[in-house]
Specification:
The protein is an alpha/beta fold. The protein is built from 10 helices and 7 strands. A 7-stranded mixed β-sheet has the order 3-2-1-4-5-7-6, with helices on both faces. Strand 6 and strand 7 form a beta hairpin. The structure holds ligand 77N and magnesium ion.
Length: about 210
């Protein structure tokens, strides 16, 4: 039977990227998605904004919601200081299997813990299962109708502290109107919109950076 797009993306990484070189993994995926097959990675343009937010924050504890093929996982993990940890949640087992191999090809498996399952099931278990007190940085890139309930769930579970940064992908396309309304009007967040484009296209999209004020 025909291969899946994530399987073809992994083949491209293994063929064109250098083991242990995260930048070559990022470039191989971006080239494939721009010239061969579009895929829902955060991409190079929004990826550069993601890089600048992570570099400025230098987070120790990172949560990513929605791994897909591991593109943004690699982008974030390559910038983390030694000893920092990234936990990434992926619901789809096929995506998770590909992402593990992409993350390993980049040589970042020691910084990354990929967990299979739904965000709503795992967020309440972060403390007892992973020994996490609070996160410094959260990248939201999963089901768009889960951004708001999962943010409220993280608040209720005490996983956010004064200064925790949430960065949300796709706030315009596909769009997360309820989440945007919440973080932009809540007194518990200071929010900023980074205008950009939907990965590998000319359509408008953007990232919303929201700082939890405690
Ligand atoms: N642990 C978890 N818990 C819950 N749910 C989870 C989960 N892990 C995964 N999932 C499930 C969903 O994961 C993928 C979500 N991402 C997107 O859907 C997405 C779509 C587009 C897009 C598509 C078509 C267009 F025309 C225009 C834009 C672009 C993007 O950048 C996207 O990120
Ligand atoms: Mg996205």
């Amino acid at each position: 039977t025909r291969s899946t797009r994530p399987q073809r993306l992994l083949k491209v990484v293994q063929k064109h990227a250098t083991r242990g070189d995260p930048q070559s993994v990022i470039s191989a995926i971006d080239h494939f998605c721009r010239h061969s097959e579009w895929a829902m990675n955060v991409g190079d343009e929004k990826g550069s904004i993601l890089d600048s937010v992570v570099s400025e924050l230098n987070p120790e504890k990172v949560l990513e919601l929605g791994t897909y093929c591991g593109y943004s996982t690699v982008r974030i993990a390559r910038l983390l200081p030694p000893g920092a940890r990234l936990i990434t949640l992926e619901f789809n087992a096929d995506y998770a299997a590909i992402a593990r191999q992409v993350i390993a090809w980049a040589g970042l498996e020691d910084k990354v813990q990929l967990v299979e399952g739904a965000s709503e099931d795992w967020i309440p278990r972060m403390k007892e299962h992973f020994g996490i007190e609070t996160f410094d940085f959260v990248f939201l890139d999963h089901w768009k109708d889960r951004y708001l309930p999962d943010t409220k769930l993280m608040e209720d579970c005490g996983l956010l502290r004064k200064g925790t940064v949430l960065l949300a992908d796709n706030v315009i396309c596909p769009g997360v109107p309820d989440y945007l309304e919440y973080v932009r009007n809540s007194l518990s967040y200071k929010s900023y919109y980074f205008k950009s484009h939907l990965e590998y296209t000319k359509a408008e999209d953007g990232l919303e950076k929201s700082v939890f004020l405690g």
